[in-house]
Structure formats: structure tokens, C-alpha cells
Design brief:
There is one protein chain. By secondary structure, the chain is mostly helical. Helices cover 65% and strands 2% of the residues. The chain has 14 helices and 2 strands; from the N terminus they run H-H-H-H-H-H-H-H-E-E-H-H-H-H-H-H. It has helices at 6-9, 13-32, 54-61, 64-83, 85-118, 126-134, 159-177, 193-213, 233-249, 251-254, 257-279, 291-314, 321-348, 355-376, and strands at 220-222, 226-228. Strands 1-2 form a two-stranded antiparallel ribbon.
């Protein structure tokens, strides 16, 4: 997990470096959202949208959170076996539940209040907004826009932590119900090319079926409290489960280099084709409910999930002190980066430079400030290292 497995990950420096790479993509993703038209912006900027930049969001969404879920599942069995079921669940509740509660009570409503103040609606103080418009229970104001959710109670980008907490509980129940009668074998070979293709076919079918009712970017409250985007749930759930299977069998360490690099080439090539076709204007839209789009996304996702860890492993990325220091900050960066992104976007509004320069500066500054905030402030507060 982002918040787990520091002991196990110390044996896998490349996995830690991969997390650093992914969290950088997360920051870039949230930075780009306000500059495109195909995604509801978190911060409404006065700049005109950048044409076809939505391809960055689409390619990212096709794999990066799925790879995070795979890594989360990969280190779960080891943490569970080392700590025991009860301690494991208490540890997950502390590391995931406390930041989630902090986010819902302070971080997310603060971000939403800033968005509210920037939207041109009647001005409200933070506390008034939090009580009357963020939390349920008050009457809906007459001036509230019809296209804006009300009340605004949500967990924002921390949905990932909520999912990991739910999965931890389900994994604990699974281990209780399915007690192994013999030690689990750790000698299984990593999946063959045929097995990977079979997974792609299954993922394509499941994704296509779900998207008949839930296209991409439609979020729901499953069971009224689990915030999710159903369009990507087949990918997230399946990769977490595959990670659970892969971890005890050490697939990250044993995946053949040639096989992994072939899949990496396929995934990177598909991403490059997407950038070329959309960037040139040859493709003007990718309806998420189209079966070919589902197949493209599923293939690219599986290829990169197989190939990226192998590339990081073979390049020995992550062994240096700098990478380890950055890796130790990743979880905190995930939790705290979003208000940093919005603050940088706000600070650069009206800067006398081209919109592309403003966007690149936003990404670079948000990455640097987020890591510095966590490393120099958050982790130095009492008790924070027990959480982050």
C-alpha cells in the first residue's frame, strides 16, 4: 500500500521508486484537470482550455491507480502474516482511517470552500459553509446551482484510502474464513503471456459491461458511503486481488525481464499512439462505453502494470538515499498534495506567461512543495511517522 509495507518494501527499492513515479503522475493529473474541458475542474481558471490535453488524463486514468492498487495488494499478505490479523487491522485503521477522518473533517471541506468562494456564489465564511452546505441536515439554499452537488459532503481524492480500508477489512474476513491447512506455496511462476492476454480479455468484458450503465467520470456513493467511479472498478478490484496472489509468490522479483519489457513496449507504444492520434486531432473523442476503447484501456493497463515494475527493477531505480527519502514521503504527499495544487493554481492566476508555461510551472511547483511540506513539516510533527 501507499501507507503500508515499509519493512517489505525495504527489500524492493524499485517498488518504492515506482510509487514516487506514480504519485508524481497523481499530482500532474490533478494539476491538468483545470486546464481541460472533458473533466469537471476542481479549480475554475480564467484561462481557455488547452485543446486535446485531455489525452493526458485519459492515458493516466487507464493505468496509474490500477498499478497503485496492485502494489497495495502485493504487500498486504506479508504485512498480515508478520503482524497477525488483529494487529494488521488496527494498523490499517490507524494509517488509513485517521487521515481519512482528518480529510473529511478539515482538508476536503477547506478545498471545497475555496472552490465555493471562487465560483461567484454568495460569500460564506468557512464554518458557515461547512455546517450548512458541506454537511447534510440543512435546507438547500435557493441560489445553489442545479449542476452542483448538494450537500457537498465527499472524501475527494482520499477515496483511495477509503477503498484500501474496505479491502483490508474484507481481506481480514477472507483470512478468517479461509484458514490455510498447509503453508502457502511461494514457488509459483509469474503469469505467462497467455495468462496476461486472458486477463485482458476478462477485464475488457467486465469494464464494457459496467460502462453500459456507468460511463467514465461518473461517481457514485456505493452503499451510501463508499465513493467510487464504477467505470474503473473492474480494473481496481482485479488488480488488488492479483496483487494479493502475486505478493507471496514474488512475481515482481521473478517476472522474466524479456517478458516484462515486451509488455512495457506494448503499453508505452499504445500510450504514444493515443497521444499522437488525439494530439494531432485525428481522434476527437473516445467514448468510454465503446468496446474498442475498453479493450484499448485494458490492454494498455495490463501491459504497463506488468512492464513498469520490471523496468524499474532492471534499471535498479530506487537504491539511492534520495529515492528512499522520497519514497518515505509518498503517502503523506498523496494525502496533502491536493490543496497544494489548488494553492499553486490560485497563485499563478493572471501570471503574464503562456497557459502552457503556467501549467508546467504548476506541476513542477506542486510536486516540489508537496514533498517539502511532508518531509519538512508533516513528518516532523509528533506521532505523524506512526501514520505516514
Amino acid at each position: 500500500m501507499i501507507a503500508d509495507s515499509k519493512l517489505e518494501a525495504s527489500r524492493l527499492d524499485f517498488a518504492d521508486a515506482l510509487r514516487v513515479f506514480l504519485i508524481t503522475l497523481v499530482i500532474a493529473h490533478h494539476s491538468v484537470e483545470s486546464y481541460v474541458t472533458r473533466h469537471p475542474p476542481e479549480m475554475v481558471l480564467p484561462d481557455p482550455p488547452i485543446p486535446r490535453l485531455w489525452v493526458f488524463l485519459w492515458v493516466n486514468a487507464g493505468f496509474f491507480m490500477g498499478l497503485f492498487f496492485f502494489l497495495a495488494g502485493y504487500f498486504t499478505p506479508g504485512a498480515y502474516d508478520r503482524k497477525g490479523g488483529g494487529v494488521y487491522l488496527r494498523d490499517r485503521s490507524r494509517r488509513l482511517g485517521w487521515p481519512l477522518a482528518f480529510g473529511v473533517l478539515l482538508l476536503i471541506p477547506l478545498v471545497d470552500w475555496v472552490r465555493y468562494r471562487a465560483s461567484g456564489l454568495p460569500p460564506l465564511g468557512y464554518w458557515e459553509y461547512f455546517v450548512h452546505d458541506f454537511l447534510p441536515g440543512s435546507p438547500k439554499p435557493d441560489y445553489w446551482p442545479s449542476d452542483r452537488r448538494w450537500p457537498e459532503l465527499n472524501i475527494g481524492h482520499l477515496w483511495f484510502l477509503e477503498h484500501l480500508l474496505v479491502y483490508a477489512v474484507l481481506y481480514r474476513l477472507w483470512r478468517i474464513l479461509m484458514r490455510p491447512s498447509a503453508p502457502r506455496s511461494r514457488s509459483h511462476l509469474p503469469p505467462s503471456n497467455l495468462a496476461i492476454i486472458g486477463y485482458i480479455v476478462a477485464l475488457t468484458g467486465a469494464t464494457f459491461i459496467v460502462r453500459i450503465w456507468y460511463p467514465q467520470d461518473r461517481w457514485v456513493g456505493f452503499l451510501h458511503f463508499i465513493q467510487m467511479e464504477p467505470a474503473h472498478m473492474p480494473q481496481y478490484v482485479s488488480l488488488f486481488v492479483i496483487g494479493l496472489i502475486a505478493g507471496p509468490r514474488r512475481w515482481l522479483e521473478t517476472m522474466p525481464t524479456r517478458r516484462g519489457l515486451i509488455w512495457l513496449g506494448l503499453g508505452a507504444g499504445m500510450g504514444a499512439v493515443a497521444y499522437l492520434m488525439i494530439g494531432s486531432g485525428a481522434v476527437r473523442g473516445l467514448p468510454s462505453q465503446n468496446w474498442a476503447v475498453c479493450a484499448f484501456e485494458s490492454t494498455m493497463c495490463a501491459a504497463l502494470v506488468v512492464g513498469l515494475p520490471v523496468a524499474f527493477r532492471e534499471l535498479a531505480v530506487g537504491a539511492s538515499r534520495m529515492w528512499r527519502k522520497l519514497a518515505a514521503d509518498v503517502y503523506g504527499v498523496y494525502v496533502f498534495h491536493f490543496p497544494v495544487v489548488m494553492a499553486v493554481q490560485w497563485a499563478l492566476i493572471g501570471a503574464p506567461v503562456a497557459v502552457w508555461v503556467r501549467l508546467v510551472a504548476t506541476v513542477a511547483l506542486a510536486v516540489v512543495i508537496s514533498f517539502m511540506l511532508v518531509d519538512q513539516l508533516i513528518l516532523r510533527l509528533p506521532g505523524m511517522r506512526r501514520i505516514f
